Each structure stands twice: as structure tokens, then as C-alpha cells.
Fold each of these.
Amino acid sequence: MSVSSRLNEIRGQLPAGVTLVAVSKTHPADRVAEAYAAGQRIFGESRPQELKAKAEALPRDIEWHMIGHLQTNKVRMLMPYVACIQSVDSERLLACIDSEAARLDRTVDVLLEIHVAREESKSGWEPGELERYVASGNWRMLHHLRFRGVMGIASHTDDEAVVRRDFEALAAWRERLAPLFGPQFDTLSMGMSHDWPLAVACGATVVRVGSSIFGERDYSK
Ligand SMILES: *Cc1c(COP(=O)(O)O)cnc(C)c1O
């Protein structure tokens, strides 16, 4: 199946109001261009260098989202190209993104990535750490960030009850933090190729779908 027919199939199943981020990491720019031609405008990438290269090669009206682990020394490279950084998981990274956005005299959307999965390797704020940071009020000084909501990855398991529990935990976080961050804190980014329908059932407003659109990734290339 072509990229456009896969895209249309997913769009046909997504309820109104749920945004599709097409995760194009590892896939070449011409595959992204196929999705663009089919009307897709929001793409997700995991590596700053790759996001930059694609942003420079592809139309300007694409909205690029960073969804992978981000090191502070890569933020400057990313800042001219990125619309939203979904994978923010530390105070240090927030401060760095804010100061790089300030240098370019812009604001940038950020999501707080929260660790809810059982796997230890998954990135994201640990709940206690996030509690302390939010309570510190330090985020109030980051004037070049727009805190838009939360992002997370569910446990990788076939046990639907576990996945549902992870999604519900993310939804609860967004609801709890929204009164602090204000009405723009409206985004709940969760759900990937294998679990997005359940994420949507649990209240996702953004799903991040890669392999169901572009096919399997080949990391050896
Ligand atoms: C790769 C990735 C996705 C997309 O995964 P698929 O299973 O290919 O849909 C979504 N979110 C994050 C954070 C990713 O790294």
C-alpha cells in the first residue's frame, strides 16, 4: 500500500479533533514528500540532525515535532526548525530550550514527557521529580516556552489493561497540571502505530504514528 492510502486509512479512523503526527524518522525525504502531497503537514522526528536536514529539503509549511530524546547541546541546531518539542524531560532541558528560543526571539511549544511505562529504559520525568519541579514554580520564568501539555509512551505489552492504565495515568497528569499552566495546556500526545486506537479512547488529542504510514524502519541504513 502507498503512503497516501495508509494515511487516508488512518485519517478515516481518527475522530475529529485528534491530530496526527506522522513519524518520519529514518525514512528519506522523498517518502515524507509523498505524505506531504497527500495533505499531511505535521511530522515527527527523533534526531535533531535528521529533522534539520528534512526541514531544509522540504516545504516550509511543514510543522516539525521533536519526539525523541534531546540533548541540550543539540537544542541550538534544532531551534530554527522545530514547532514543538514533545520530549522534554528535565529542568535543565527546559532552561536550555527557553534560552535558545530567546536568542531567536521566538516562542516554542513544549510537552512534558512523563515516564509511565513499566520499562525502565523509557525516558520522561519520573512522577516525583515532576511534582517537585512543578511545585518549585521555576517554569514561570521561562517566557519563551508555551507549555502545551503532556506526552508519553505506554508499556510495550499485549496486555491491554496495562496499556490502558498507562494512558489513563497520562490523561490524569494533563488534567492535574492544566489549572497551573492555563488553558493552552490542552495537548495529550499518546498512542503509536500499535496502540493509538486505545490512546484515542483514553482521550489522546495527538497520536504519533510512524510504521503504519511509512512501513517498518530500517535502522541499519
Ligand atoms: C518512533 C516513535 C513513534 C512512532 O512509532 P511507530 O510504532 O512507528 O508508530 C511514536 N512516538 C515516539 C516517541 C517514537 O519514538
Amino acid sequence: MDTFEGNAEGCYLYSRHSSPSNLNLGEALAAMEGTETANVAASGMGAITPTLMQLCNNGDHIVSSRTIYGGSYAFLKNFAPKFGITTTFVNITSLEKIEAAINKNTKVIYCETVSNPLLEIADIRELSKMAKRHNLTLVVDNTFSPLSLSPTLLGADIVIHSLTKFINGSSDTVGGVICGTQEFINSLRSVIDGASMLLGPVMDSLRSASVLKNMRTLHLRIKKHSENTMYLAEKFEKDGIKIIYPGLKSHPQHELYKTMYNEEYGFGGMLAFDVGTLKIADDLMELMQKRNLGYLAVSLGFYKTLFNAPGTGTSSEIPLDEQEKMGLSDGLIRMSIGLDNNIERTYQEMKKCMIEIGVL
Ligand SMILES: *Cc1c(COP(=O)(O)O)cnc(C)c1O
């Protein structure tokens, strides 16, 4: 009975429920986020969807940031309603709009600490207070900012990561994790009604051992990603390009970020800028790829720089009129800056590309 309930130390019921390697990786991630425990999953979506299905029943309501990962948006908008779970999408930087969207059926506030792809910053402390006032669960996707930001230390209830990105860091796997209380993680793993157990997005245990090995260098990688990104952001801003990066004073939530971050890990490895049209964005990205400055690809957190145009790429699930409302234009380029050893040279080479394409 103890094994069935997950209470028999050293005894494992069945590997979809738990396994030594999966528990080890989960404990490492829980330690990083400061939560009691964690449950790893086969992908980021395999962490997000069971969490929301576990927290919400038929008739329940979610208030979500409108600038979230395309898959999360599509799940909330198109899939969750099949189970009677509805969502209101709001501008996450407006606390008034978020509070106004809460109704008597609301169970969850959902957001990303650093939003995809516009890099808006959620005020986790204030959102946590609001969640507590209304008896809601604050669920935060922290994929863009591991180590730099620790949402549970600021009051979030549950923190999710796609391990596919910075945490694994080598773009050779998919994975996810849910960090939370022992009680919540137990409920996800319940053989009776646990969403992770019953929907079955389990991580393969050989894979979790390899993700754990990669995680051992995460602190070094994040520092380097942040340092390189800050360098490029400052240089290109000086050159007159409107760079979106939380490390720049020109970012609307720069000061807020500074009240929340773990300073030594910096402002993260993501930046974005608008070159006007999709054609120019494509030409620039093709040229940068040809010059071996990175890859025209989705995903993020790789050792090489990755760039894409989210309007037609990673956020293409979001209808055009809604993209427009949230300020996501066709010419927006999102970059995940790599671990380049000589970032000054990278800057010079990127600048040449921008001059050739006519962006500078
Ligand atoms: C990639 C990503 C996800 C989804 O993760 P997968 O591992 O691809 O399932 C969720 N949230 C954010 C912010 C992401 O970047």
C-alpha cells in the first residue's frame, strides 16, 4: 500500500509514476526553484497541460497572460474548452486588467515570468498577492529565465519549465518539469485521478539522467548567455536599433526585473527587435545563418545563437488580429543568444549583416 501511495522510500511502483532517475532530476530542479519537490515530464507541454487539467474542473476559469508560448495559448484557447475550462487572456503587465478578469469560477492565474516572444516581465510578487486575495493558484512558466528569476521565492505556487531550452541546453531532447508542493505533486501522480499519471507524459529515465548531467553546467551557461546578450543589446541599441531586452533601461519593466532577479545570473539570454517587415527579417536571418552567426530555428537556450520571426513561427498559433493587439509584428526577430567566446567579433559580424540588408 505504501508503494502505491508513493510513501515507501526506495520502492518504486511503476516507471510512469516514478523512477530513481526521474526523482533525482526532480529533486535537483526543486532545489533550484526552492519548492518542496517536482515532477519531471516528457516535454514542457507535458508539464503545462497536466498541471492545468489537475487544477481545473469542468466549469472552471483561468486568467492567462496573452503573451505566452504558442502551444500553451493554443491549449487554453482551443483544447481546454472541450473540458469546460475557459480562459480570459489579459495584458500581464496591467494588474487592474488581470484583477478585473477574475470571476467566481476562476481557479488559476497563468503567466510566464519573461514572456514569449515580447519579453514582458510579470510582477510575480503582486500577482501572488492577488492570487492569495482571491484564493487562486499562481502558475508560472519560467522557461526563459532559469536561475535569473525564482518565481516561488517571490510567491508563485507552481513553477514550470520546458527543460528542452536552457536547462538541458543542447537542443537534443525535449523535457519538462512541474515544481510545487509535495501535496500538489502527489496529486499529479495519483493512480486514482492524477493528470500526470493518467495522461502519461512521463520522461524516459535514461533521458532524465542525461538532463541532470547537463544541468550541472547551467549556472555557467546562464551567466554567459546573459553577459553576451547584454553586450549585444547595448551595442545595437547604441547603433539605433530598438532592442527589447530587460537588461536595458529602455525596457518598460527594467526596474521591476531588478527588484526580482538573482543578480549574478543577469537578465537572461533572449532579446528581440523589429526590423519592419517579414521580408527584411527573413533576409537578415538567412544572411546571419550563411555567415555562421547562428541558426534560423525555433527553440532557445542552445550554445549557438538561434533566431526566428515569431509572428509566422513559434507564435503562429495566435491569430493575426490578436498578434497585432499584443504588439507582435511580422518583422519581429527573436534571438536566443549563444555562448560565443568572442562576442565582440559576433557583434561586428552581425552589424555587417544588418548594414548589408539595410537595417542599419
Ligand atoms: C518551448 C516552450 C514550451 C514548451 O516546451 P516543450 O518542451 O517544447 O513542450 C513552453 N513554454 C515556453 C516558454 C517555451 O519556450
Amino acid sequence: MTSGDLAELDRRYIWHPFTQQQGWLSEDAPIIRSAKGTNLFDVEGRGYIDGVSSLWCNVHGHQHPKIDRAVRDQLGRVSHTTMLGLSHEPAIRLAERLVEIAPERLTRVFYSDSGSTATEIALKIAFQHFQQSGQPERTRFLSMRDAYHGDTIGAVSAGGIDLFHATYGPLLFETLKTTPGDVAELERHFEQHGNELAAVIMEPLVQGAAGMILHPNGYLRKVRQLCDKHGVLLILDEVATGFGRTGTMFACQQEAVEPDIMCVAKGITGGYLPLAATLTSEIIYSSFLGDHTEQKTFFHGHTYTGNPLACAAGIATLEIFEQEQTLDHVADLCVLILKLLEPIAELPRVKEVRRRGLMVGIELDGFPVEARAGHQVTLAARRRGAIIRPLGDTIVLMPPLAISADELRRLVDITGESIAEVSADAASKEEPRVRRAKVKI
Ligand SMILES: *Cc1c(COP(=O)(O)O)cnc(C)c1O
């Protein structure tokens, strides 16, 4: 089938996620046929750097021989078998590995298949835990403004991105919202509501979908302290930050904070297959134990929970972290990217560059909303051979951790050139303006 035929069929049949289909029709998005390492190739043979890790999940590159082999080997045994009433070796072995690398307090693994389900499960577990632990008044959740925990209704209730979430207001349960980084507000919430809170749910260190919003150092630890003081659980959503993305295996390790519940997904299979896990402490797990008649069972489970192919990919992904010393490689890349981003921060239309590990947000400045500057930058980058995807007017760079120094340099160069191109286009169309002072990291 020619690329034109495929594009035509796509337009006729597919409704793309987070996409205004009306604009999509004229856009000619690449149709990807294959990928190797950190590059994607479309049906016309053009190559692109995978600058956002196929939506933040690729870790060791595409077609990694070890993950490919693990999935193929598993295909030769069984592709799917349920975890309701049965078990299987890949799920068992992956759970053991996850508990080994997770913060010590986390001892149990509940599988599902996406980041959204991982956070839904965390919320339901925290709620049910208190219902059956003699504190049924603990029914509420505290979450961060501009948080993102997924797109299902519970996850959206804990979220705070108006553009994505406001429409569904009438469908959501109410959560308390606090401004990330504001310790005084946080303390106020705990003083007023500490005894009715079941849990705080948050993305540790970086709020990704909010536009790579960085929390001040020590904020996470402060949340942990207040949770301890008031007997509130801490749920950390490490769906984006987990598996080396911020430089340590999990972001919370940078502040030596242990959550009671931790959600992981995206990078868990190296970006190969849908899989997620919600890890809990032994105390929480134990509160679900009881005679059948007590009805303490956690009545939750998805058809593809703990899929064997995905678990096999997960085991291989974790092994590669050791074999290829991925975290050391990330540490080197962090030194490099800091330098590479300097000239970008100096571009006139860049307001701020935010980064933690290999999570980067470049916020553009002074474009009218209708200019869709972030989107224009991604189109310009695509013409130069890189796939990136913005969050509004914040350009996101989140390459696979395995990216080489040379390729990282090329990705950042392309990004800088694309921002400059879009800025020049805009400048040629508008009145000269007075520049505001910049905030930069
Ligand atoms: C992507 C993301 C989710 C949702 O994961 P899906 O697999 O897309 O459902 C949840 N939390 C965070 C922090 C994320 O970045």
C-alpha cells in the first residue's frame, strides 16, 4: 500500500488521541513503518530521532536485541494468560525485581496495563485500606494543581490540568488541590483536613504533563513528613519519572523519600508493550487480608493485567539497566545536555528552560495562543528529522535514555533551529515589542 493510500485510510477510519481531527486532515503526519535504536522511519523511508521516546516510554531504544529476544521467547510459550486465579513466571520474576529496586517500604506488586489504571488502583487501594482499617472517615485526597495522573475518571479527578480536565467536572469526585512548592498552603491543608485525608497523590520532583514543572528541592520530603505526622498515605505517581528518567531509578530516591504506594508504567517495558504496576507497603497489603466473608478482597483487575509478553519485556528492560549501566550513561548525558541547552535558553523567544535528568521543557514566550507556536516548532523539527511533541507552548525533549551523545546533540540543535525559525516567522508578522525580563535556569 502506498503512503498516500495509508494516509487516506487513516483519515477515513482513525480518531487519534489528544488530537483535533479537523486539523489532522491537512497535516500529513508521518506513518511510521519501523524503528531502530533511537530513530523512527516512516513509510517513505525518512528517518527521525525519537525525541520524546514514543510518548515518554522508550528507554533502551527500539529493536533492542535483548528485549526483542525476550518477547520472542515468550511468544513461543504463551502470549496471554490471566492472573485472575492463575499465575505465570514472567509476572512473578518481574515482581521480584521491581520490589528489589523499589524503595524498601514497597513489598507488593499489583499489575495493570497503563499509567491511568495504575493511579486508579492506587486511589482505590488507599480508600479501601482506611475503610477496613478502622478509619472510614479518611475518604479524601490531596493532589497538586496542574497534576496529571491519566485520563480515566479517577485519574482525572486527581488531575488538575484545566484544558484536559475541566469539561468533565460534573463526573469527577472532589479532591483538595494544593500549589506545588507552596509549603505554607500544604501545611494549611493538613491542619484543616489531615484527619479526613486518605492520601496525597503527586508526581515526584517533576510534573511532566503540566509542562515539566519542577518542584523545589525538599518539597517532596516535606510532603512525606506531613503525611507521617497526620497518618496520611503518600501515593507517588512515577509513571513518567520512573526507570531512570530523572537520573535515578525512581525520582523519589533523590530525596530519600519512600512512598506507601507507587505507580509505574511508561518505561517499565522499555516502551515495548502496555504494562503498569502499583506497588504498596506490607501494611497496606495486610489490611486487605481476611476471611472471604469480611469482603476485604480488592475487587479490581483488568483482562490483560500482568500480560506475559509485557512482563518478559519488563524483565529484559531491567536487566539492560545493569548490563549497559544505563544510569551512568544518563549521568553523562545530563552533563552534556546542560551545555547544549545554554544557547537555547538565550533565544529571544524562550522564556524558561526546565530540566531534571532527561526530562526537558522549553517554554516559549510571547506567542498568541492561535499561533500554536509549540506545534509549529514540532513541524519545523520534523522537516529537520526529529519527532518532538509540545505541551502547549512548552517544547518537550525526552529522548530514550540510550541516546548517544552525538544524537542528543543533533536533537537539541534541531530543536534550537526550529524554535529560531518559528520565532523569525512570527517576528516578520508582528509589531516590534518590548522584551520582558527572563527567568532562566
Ligand atoms: C502518562 C502519565 C500517566 C498516564 O499513563 P497512561 O499509560 O497514558 O495511561 C499517569 N501519570 C503520569 C505522571 C504520566 O506522565
Amino acid sequence: MGRYERREGELPPGQRLQRGWPVTHYGPVPRFKPDRWEFRVFGATADGDKTCWNHADFSALPYDTVVADFHCVTKFSMLGIEWGGVATSTVVKLAPPAADVTHVMVWAEYGFSSNLRIEDFLDDQSLFATHKGGQPLTAEHGFPVRLIVPGLYAWKGPKWVRGVEYMTADRRGFWEERGYHNIGDAWSEQRYSYQEEPGEGPEI
Ligand SMILES: Nc1nc2c(c(=O)[nH]1)N[C@H]1C(S)=C(S)[C@@H](COP(=O)(O)O)O[C@H]1N2
Ligand SMILES: [Mo]
């Protein structure tokens, strides 16, 4: 797929190292309401049903950790961060997609969304992170759950995730509709939608 291979611990083209951990997002930080929160898996599921986990259920799912790099399209990167949470493969195992699912839309609070190819979503390092460096995420960094997909720019990983929609055709998410690349592979420097080649994204 990409022109470059992913190389852990190195900077993708055009990126620079960042000290500290800046907060980057559009809109306000949502307030976590534990009694109203649920994580929903819906759309083209294998059995046509939805799966909903409340916060206690979601917190009880198998916990995995990955060490991964983080690349923001505004050109800062952080390397070697330890994330903990629920592997995307765990979600897919417990709430399987239909056989013809090709993409997912990951939904967050306030309708923020990002679309991913199923193979990017199921990268063996993709994780619904609840923790960073062993500590629960803070509110501004996405508590209780954010998605981490190490090879893609970080906008492909929504903070404050509330659900996954299985899709049998691609559709653009929030930033993908607003000028950012439909795939967003950091190693291929897929920053903006004008760089898309035919077949890399649906019409805008
Ligand atoms: N819900 C939501 N998630 C989001 C964003 C956003 O605007 N809304 N911005 C993305 C972008 S562009 C980046 S770089 C990272 C930043 O994560 P951080 O604030 O924890 O560093 O969150 C991503 N997730
Ligand atoms: Mo970003």
C-alpha cells in the first residue's frame, strides 16, 4: 500500500520530535457521564445485531498494551509511548463484522468520526486505549477511550470514542471530509485529500 515501510522509533517524512504531550482537537472536551456512556458496535455486523458495552463491561474486556509512535499531521511526533486498553481485534472477535465489511467508521462524542480501512483498523498494534504509561487517560487526552492506530496520522484515532460502525463501502469521516487524506498513512505522507490517487477515497 504505502510507498514507505513503517519503522518504529523513527520519524516519518516531514515530522519532528515533540517534547511533552500537547492537546490537539476540535471543539470542547466532553464530560464523562458514566451512567449514560456506552460503547456501541453496529452497522454491518455478522448477525445483524448491535453490541453495547457500558463502562463497567468495557473496562472488564481483556487488557492489552502496545508500545507505539504517535504522529500528528501538523508535523509533531512522539515515539515509544506505552498504551493500554482493548485491542481492536478483541472488539471484532466479540462483535464480529459481516464478511463483506471493508471499512469502519469510528464514532466519538459530539459526532466526531474517522473512517479506516478494516486492515488498518485491525493492524496488530491498533488499540482502544484507556491508559497511557499505566495511568488512565486524562479528560483532554480522550478519557475514557481513544483509538490508537500507529501507522496513521493521529486524527485517524478519535478521542472520546463511543462506537464502531462496520461499513461495506467507504465513507469519509470528520477530517476526511474537510481536506485531510482519506487513508492518512504517515509513512507515505498522506496528509491532504488533494494528494489522493484514484481509488484512495470516495468523492468529496
Ligand atoms: N474526538 C476527537 N478526537 C481527536 C481529534 C478531534 O478533533 N476530536 N483530533 C485528533 C488529532 S488531529 C490529534 S493530533 C490527536 C491529538 O491527541 P492528543 O490531544 O491526546 O495529543 O487526537 C485526534 N483525535
Ligand atoms: Mo493532529
